[in-house]
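Q: Hi! First time doing this. I have a protein sequence and I read that you can turn it into a structure. Is that right? Here it is:
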Amino acid sequence: MYKIVFIDTETTGLKPFKGDRAIDIACIEYQNGKKTGRQFNTRLNPKGKSSDKRALKIHGISINLLFSNHCLKMSLQTSSK
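A: Yes, that's right. Below is the predicted 3D structure, encoded as structure tokens:
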């Protein structure tokens, strides 16, 4: 028996050292090659950082959709409870 969790992220760009931030995190758990039904998805507030044009073309998540969400630190604290 084995479990595996697939993690997918979306970001404002590919340069975290220049201020790009995570804006979406999704996880899906599988056990023995089948979905367990356990999954997690959250959108994150990038604190005013807009997606660059290439990233926006890929994920389609505009900054306007993210303003009401928590930042990464708050989302992780909330999901661990």
